[in-house]
Amino acid sequence: MVDEPEYGAGQIQVLEGLEAVQKRPAMYIGSTDDRGLHHLVDEVVDNAIDEALAGYCSEIEVLLHEDGSVTVADDGRGIPVDTHEEYDRPAVEVILTVLHAGGKFDTKSYQVSGGLHGVGVSVVNALSAKLVVEIRRDGAVWRQTFEDGHPASELERLRDLESDEPSGTDIRFWPNEEIFETTEFRRSVLENRLRELAFLNPGVHITIDDDRDPESPPSTYEFEGGIREFVEYLNESRQALHRDVIYVENDEADIQVEVAAQMTEDLQPSIHAFANNINTREGGSHLTGFKTAWTRTVNDYANENGLLDALEENLKGEDVREGLTAVISIKHPDPQFEGQTKTKLGNSEVRGIVERAVNDGVGTYFKEHPDTAEVIVAKAVEAAKARKAAEQAEELTRRKSALETTSLPGKLADCQSRDPADAELFVVEGDSAGGSAKQGRNPKFQAILPLSGKILNVEKHRLDRVLENNEIRSLITALGTGIGEEFDIDGLRYEKVLLLVDADVDGAHIRTLLLTFLYRHMRPLLEQGHVYASQPPLYRIRCGGETYDAMNDAEREQIIEEHCDGSPSQVQRFKGLGEMNPEQLWDTTMNPETRILKRITIEDAAAADRIFSTLMGDAVEPRKQFIQEHAPEAEWIDI
Ligand code: 0RA
C-alpha cells in the first residue's frame, strides 16, 4: 500500500441524523420486507469487506443466534474509538449514530467501497431494537450498547488486548420488529451473498453458522481462484466445451478489471457483472465493454483463421454469447450507480477500459490456446447457422411481429378492467381447472388463461422453436410486454401474474417450466415482483358447522386438534384444482381477502441461473443432488 492516509476520528464527515432513517427506512435499504432485512447483514459485511479490500481483514464470521439476532465479526482494524473532535464523543459512537459518518464518503480514506449498500452501519443501528459493538483496537477490547439507535451505555474499556490477539470488530444486532415485516433471517439468502463475496474477493475467508439449528454445521467460503471458481460453480450442471476458464485482469487508471469466461454446450448465456462487489443486474458500461470486445475478439480470431468462410458473414453478439458463462468484476474508486434499482454502472470511461482489457487479454489467450478458440468459434458458428435458418424461413420475424399485431388469444377470458394497476392474470394448469376459475373469478379484475398441455422447456430450445409453442404464444400476447430485447414493461396488461397449478409433482413441473420461460425471456417481470405462485389448499376440514382449509399435512393435523377436538366431521383432500367447484376455487385460492400468494422474486441472478440450468438442463446427477438437498423445503424452490 502506498501513501496510506492517516485515519483517525478527525476525518469523519457528518451529514444527517438517524430519525430520517427510522421514518423512511425504505429510502435507505430499499424495503422493509425480507429483502430489506437481509440488507442489514449485507451492510455490516460490506464494511468488513472494505477492510479486506484495504488490506487489513482476512476473516469474516456471521453467526445467527437463537434469539433472532445476528453477529458479524471481522479481523479488520476495528472501528476507531478515539474522541471525535467535533462531537466530543468516541468515534465509534459517532459512526453508529450519525448518518453518513462512515469514512467512506471521503474518497481518500478508502480506495474502493460498495455503492449500493454503502449507506453506513448507522442505518443498521437505526433499524435495530438493540445493537452491541465490540472492538479490539488500540491495545484494548471496547464495548458499547445501543437501543433504537441511541447509545444505551458509554463506550467501555473491557480489558487489555492480549499480545497475540488480532484487532477487529464484532457487531451484534437485533432487527426492530416494529419496522420489519419479518425479522427471521434465512440462512440460504445470506449464504448466497457470502459465497458471492468470497468469489469476488479471493483470500477472504467467510464463515456462517446458525445456532438456531444446532444440528447444522457451519458453511465456509474461501476461493483462491476468485471469479474463475465462480464460473466453474455456475457451470456445475452445464457441459463446458473447454477445460480451463479463460481469465483476464487489468489495472488502468485506478480501475481494476477482471473477467472470467467459459463456453458451454447450453443455449442460454449466463453473464454476471459486478462493480465494487455489487451485482449490477441492470448492466452498464462494464457489461457493454465486455460484450463489444468478446464479439470482436471471437470474430477476429475466426476471420484470421478462415473459420467464417462457409457462413459468409460475421458472427453477431447473440451468436458468440450463446452458452457463454462469464463473470465481469470491476473495482472503481468512485462508482456511479444508475437505473431503476441503482444497479446499472454509469461510469462511461469503464467501457473502453474493459474493452481494451478483453480485446488484449482474450486475443492473446486465443493465440496461445487455439483449441479453445476453435471450439468457441465453432459453437458460435452453429448458433449463427440456426439463427440464419430461422431468419431465412422468415419464421422468427413473422412470429415475432405476429406477437405484436395479433389480437388476444382465444383461450383468454379477459377481465373488464382496462387499468393494469388493478388487473390480475391467472395462468391455470389444465382446461377443467381453467373452466372452474372462469366461473369462480371476479370478472371485473381477474382474467384467466388456461394452459392445456405442458409448455416447452425453453432451456433446451432456441427462440424460433419457443415461439412455435401455442401455450407460450398465448401467454406472451395475453401479457402484452413482448419478449427478450423488445420486452417493454409498459405494455404489461396485468399488475399481478398468478401461476395456479396443482399441488403435486406435475404441477410443480409446470410451474418450473413457466418460471424458466419467464426468467429467460421476460426477466424484468420477475425482478420487479409481478409474478406470484397461488397456493391452493390441499385439505378442507369440516366440524361444528365450520370449514377450515389446510395447506399441508401438518396444518391439517393442527386444525383437527385445535378446532375439531380430534374428530372432524369431514376431511376432503383436493386431488387437483379440477376437483374444486368454482365457489371453492374462489374461496380458497382466488379471493384477494383470503387467498395465500407467494411472490416469486429473483434475489440473486447467479443463483437463479444455476437453479434453472440444474433443473432444466441435461445433466442428471446435479439435478438429483439439488432436489435431494432441497427436499426438506418441500417441492417449493426459492429462487
Ligand atoms: C471507520 C474507519 C475505519 C474503519 C471502520 C470505520 C470500520 C467499520 C466497520 C464495520 C464493521 N467492521 C468494521 N471495521 C472497520 C478505519 C480505521 C483505521 O483507519 O484504523
Would you kindly provide a written description of the structure presented here, covering whatever features stand out?
With 639 residues, this protein is an alpha+beta fold. Among the domains are: 19-221, Heat Shock Protein 90, CATH 3.30.565.10; 227-389, Ribosomal Protein S5, domain 2, CATH 3.30.230.10. Strands 2, 3, 7, 8, 9, 10, 11, 12 and 13 form a nine-stranded mixed beta sheet that branches. A five-stranded mixed beta sheet has the order 14-15-18-16-17, with helices on both faces. The chain has a five-stranded mixed beta sheet with strand order 22-21-23-24-28, with helices on both faces. A hairpin with a 2-residue loop joins strand 14 and strand 15 (255-263). The radius of gyration is 27 Å and the shape is globular.
What is the percent of helical residues? Answer: 25-40%
How many β-strand runs?
Answer: 28
| Main sheet overview | 9 strands, mixed
**Ligand names:** 3-[3-(1H-pyrrolo[2,3-b]pyridin-5-yl)phenyl]propanoic acid
Residue windows where pLDDT falls under 50 for at least 5 positions: 1-15, 104-116, 631-639
CATH superfamily of the domain at 19-221: Histidine kinase-like ATPase, C-terminal domain
Specify the CATH class of the domain at 19-221. Answer: Alpha Beta
Distance between the termini: 40 Å
Radius of gyration: 27 Å
CATH topology of the domain at 19-221: Heat Shock Protein 90
Strand content: 15-25%
Report mean pLDDT, rounded to a whole number.
88
CATH architecture verdict of the domain at 19-221: 2-Layer Sandwich
Helix and strand content put the structural class at alpha+beta
